Amino acid sequence: MLANTFPDDEAGSIKVGESLEALIWQHPVSREQKALEIISQLHDDFAAYKTHSQINEALLQTLTAFTGSEYGFIGEPENNNSTSGLCIKAVCNMRRHPDVRPYFGTRTDDGQYLIQLHTLSTQVLLTGRPVLNNNPAADERPAGKPACPTPVFRNFLGLPLIRKGEVTGMIGFADREGGYDPGIIALLRPILFTYTTLLYTDQADTLRAGTEAANRQLSADIDALMNTLDDIVFEMDEHKVFTKVWCKQENLLFIPMKEVIGKSISEVMGEHSTAFCKMADTLLLTGEPQYYEYTDIRQNLHHWYALKMSQIMTSQPGPKRLLLLIQNITQRKRDELELRHVNAALARNIHLLDITQQMGLIGGWEFNIVTGEIYWTRQVYQMREVPENFRPSFDDGAFYHPDDRPLLQAAHQQLLEQQKRFCLELRHISARNTCKWVKTVGMPVYTNDTLTHFRGIIMDIDKQKLSELELGQARVNAEQAAKGRSDFLSVMSHEIRTPLNAIIGIAGIMQDDPAADHKEVLHSLQFSANHLLGLVNDILDFSKIEAGKIELEHVPLNLRELVQDIAANFQPLAKAKGIKLYTNIDHDLAVQITGDPVRLSQILSNLVNNAIKFTDKGAVTLEIHQESYIRGKCSISFKVKDTGVGIAPEMLEQVFDTFVQEDSATTRQYGGTGLGLAITRRLVELMQGNIHISSVKGAGTTFYFTLDFELPESAAADRQTDLSLPPGFLAGMHLLIVEDNKINVRVMQLQLAKSGATTTVAVNGKDAILKMEQQKFDGVMLDLHMPEMNGYETIPHIRTLQPNAFIVVLTADIMPEVSERLHALHVKDILPKPYKATDLYRVLVKYRLSVTDMF
């Protein structure tokens, strides 16, 4: 058992000065040498038959000084039970700080001090492991703090005393300046192992044998300790002959380990032997440790080593012994080389950054929140045309245009209060009154989650900004020009379509029952009007395509009927030219597809019309083939072939350009605007397709393209192209016609004559309101452009006066803005002028439930 050692007077306690502690911990070799000396002293003390109390006190004082601690104690479990308490057997430096005594708890009858369990110290007994805590005051665990409230240990190190696998006691240290590190534990373990081995030798008559065994174990422990080092350690006598060597990996040695012992420095160290001998001589003469860096003596290895040479100090007289510690510092050297390269690269990058900032007209700034200091790069001084001794400030609004300063001040305020990044384009005015546009950016910078700086840049963007402003003005001018063109086209459309509506309407009415000698005249009249309408439509469609304002519909349509209708419409034209018009449609073509019937019809009509126009003999063929039919989708190819004049190879890529025909003679002979094929290509592309052309001059031309269509979920009954309605099919329907053009009013009245509907006429919106206040109407046929009150202004009054009356707008203005404006007024039925009587019937008949099943 451990003897009790708790002297009443500690005036004679060892007070180790910083010089010894610094000597021990400054040099690793000195620490290990001191550990060996302590172990040697332990052995000498036990061999001298000193009492356990004396040994405990001497060891504790020595280790307290060795570890640089303020306090120390040795204890063992009470009643050999590690769960009951800790009996203190020896303490160090307690008398100087009596307030620490309560930490050791109650004094027992036999004079021992008892530490209760569940404190920081006794965790060593409970766990059987070392306890190292460099901040007990901040430890919130129940066993993390000492029992006494003051003074609290600044740090603590406790190590178990283990004998044959059992915890037989512990040794504790506290209040080491700078705290403890795990390396101390490794150094103390061989000492404590030796202490416990010698302390518990069973009988005095076997002390010598036990001591010899302990010495052997000590040597093994020392060897084990030394062999844990990554470094190579040599022991050398005063004649510079190696007596011992420790190396964890023998292959690190220059020669086999067994060949080192008994060899001199010159025999082992080769080309470095001269330097090593000189170091040994200086050490033996002065006693001062030596240091030397060298490269590997083996030329094929590029390794660096550091030699630390010191003298082994013992209390016993005898020959001098030297300790050599060789460390592999290759990685450190590589790191130093890498650091030099990094520093060189950093300097180069800083130089390149400076050049880049100079070339890019960019300057940087940084504001230190803590010190209030602000830093500008050289480029900022140059931009502001101030000397480099100018003292900048964070609030540099004076360098900006007065109108822009509030923006900068607000951005700075948000940066300070909300840490919100800013990016502004402002007018910068230098000290010499040079005004330029700059982009200034600022952002917060955090260090360890704490806001410490604001950083930013100032970039000269004067040229870009001026170009941007000029471009913006050019865009405004272009938009104004486009709007002027759109307004002109809108007016032109209205002014041309209004009389065309009358012409085509009257011609259509007269053709229902023409006189024999009027048929040819009426046909010519209607053909000319339709031709003029086609030209107007081409111009307006191209304008809408250019403006990106064409939106495709996705409705069910019967493709077979649509193609047959197109062929029927162009048969008279083909017949008049003496050529044939054929259709070739796949038998298994999908009955219905989903698409835009109007635009698809426009594409095919343009191609068929173009083919007929340029074919004087032979035929024009319209072919429709279904390429695939998979999972609710189908792919359909379209082809229009003719046997006409053909196109020269050099013109094939230009026929789709706007206002382009093969030559001026073609324009004079065949007419047209040169927009038809350009519009066709744009429409095909809007439907996600590509149109192609192949042609042989004098033999004909083929246009072809393929489109993908979705199929309707359920196939609705095919709608008839031509309405077949009985006389009086709108009988009982009372319509209000709001139109200022008397001819168009008369045309509509004639078109409705056989329908049985009754009509009342209003010449403008105000007149319509008066009529609606006096009579009830089923629907209103409304023109848009009228004097006094136009159609747009009239619609809300119609909704208010007669909310159940339907509204059909008839307008010669078909620009996209018109549809958008009418949709905003919830008007869905729009008939563009000129319209066919059948188009009018289709709209009106859907409001008569009694005839819904007729089509």
UniProtKB/TrEMBL annotation:
Top-level class of the enzyme under EC nomenclature: transferase
Matching Pfam families: GAF_2, HATPase_c, HisKA, PAS_3, Response_reg
Reactions mediated catalytically: ATP + protein L-histidine = ADP + protein N-phospho-L-histidine
Modified positions (4-aspartylphosphate) in chain numbering: 783
PROSITE patterns associated with the record: HIS_KIN, RESPONSE_REGULATORY
EC number(s) on file: 2.7.13.3
Any GO molecular function: phosphorelay sensor kinase activity
Histidine kinase domain mapped to chain residues: 491-711
InterPro entries: CheY-like_superfamily, GAF, GAF-like_dom_sf, HATPase_C_sf, HATPase_dom, His_kinase_dom, HisK_dim/P_dom, HisK_dim/P_sf
Highest taxon above the source species: Bacteria
Keywords: Kinase, Phosphoprotein, Transferase
Residues in Response regulatory domain copies: 734-848
Name of the protein in question: histidine kinase
Organism listed in the record: Chitinophaga solisilvae
